[in-house]
Amino acid sequence: MTEGIAAIAARVTQLQTQFAQLQARPAASASAPDFAATLATEKKRQSATAPAPATTTAPTPSATPAPAPGATAVPPTATGGVTKTREPSKVIGGGSRITPTMQKVIDEIDQKFGKFPVIGAWRADGGMPGSDHPTGKAADFMLNTNGRMPSKEQLQRGWDIANYAKDNAERLGIKYIIFAQHIWNPDRADEGWRLMSDRGSVTANHFDHPHISVKR
Ligand SMILES: [Zn+2]
Fold first, then answer.
1. CA–centroid distance, residue 25 to ligand 1 (Å)
2. pLDDT greater than 70 at residue 3
3. Which of 20, 29, 143, 209 is 20 to 30 Å from 5 at the Cα level?
4. How many domains does the chain have?
């Protein structure tokens, strides 16, 4: 009987082991296809909806252009305290052809009021006798470049620039400022902005750009 009991016990153990193996196998094999199926379904869903999040998330970084790629490359105090936040505007006739005083005005105005479509500094023909452009002591901060009358907002921006230069004339070394057919210079500061004669066009009358001349 003892042998019989031992044999039964052994058989039970054997069956228990088999049962455990069977139990484990179906469990694993049943969940694996399920997992595979779920994964495939998820992948399909992701690829099906992929274009949607791509188009909705793409405008977000471009809509906030504050941390522009070039911004971090520029030293924060490159212009002596003026924190650079973006690329400077394109300057035509800049560099060694303009005076350090003019360069400083351009940098400051550009950082404070830019970005401009273009800033026109030195040019061989200043457009009129006595122009400061051929000597590198003048700059035109273009509000638009289509020759048409600027918008109300652009005109306000132009006045903000002109008045900023006026208010800081001594520090910036300003000789005179022209905007919207008006001129101001330090020697006649008490007269304020003086109306100029009509020169015939939006650009000639300086409606589309504040012109700033410096003394040196
Ligand atoms: Zn000019």
1. 86
2. no
3. 20
4. 2
Please indicate, yes or no, whether residues 131 and 56 belong to a single structural domain of this protein.
Answer: no
Name the domain boundary from 61, 96, 111: 61
**Omega cis (within 30) before 115:** yes
Question: pLDDT of 149-193, one tens digit each?
Answer: 999 999 999 999 999 999 999 999 999 999 999 999 999 999 999
Q: What's the CA-to-centroid distance between 179 and ligand 1, angstroms?
A: 10
Whether residues 85 and 146 fall in one domain: yes
- Give me the pLDDT at residue 14, please: 66
Task: Give the number of other Cβ atoms within 10 Å of residue 200's Cβ.
Answer: 8
The CA 20 to ligand 1 mean position distance, Å, reads 92
Q: What residues are neighbours of ligand 1 (ion), with CB under 5 Å?
A: 140, 211
CA 150 to ligand 1 centroid distance, Å: 17
Comparing CA positions, the residue from 212, 209, 193, 95 lying closest to residue 155 is 209
Gap from CA of 161 to ligand 1 centroid (Å): 14
Are both 51 and 95 inside the same structural domain? no
Residues 57 and 73 in one domain: no
Residue 102: which residues within 8 A CB-CB, separation 6 or more? 121, 136, 137, 138, 139, 214
Please say which residue of 61, 77, 104 terminates a domain. Answer: 61
- How many angstroms separate the alpha carbon of residue 85 from the centre of ligand 1? 27
89 Cα–ligand 1 center, Å: 17
Residue 209's CB is within 10 A of a number of other CB atoms, namely: 27
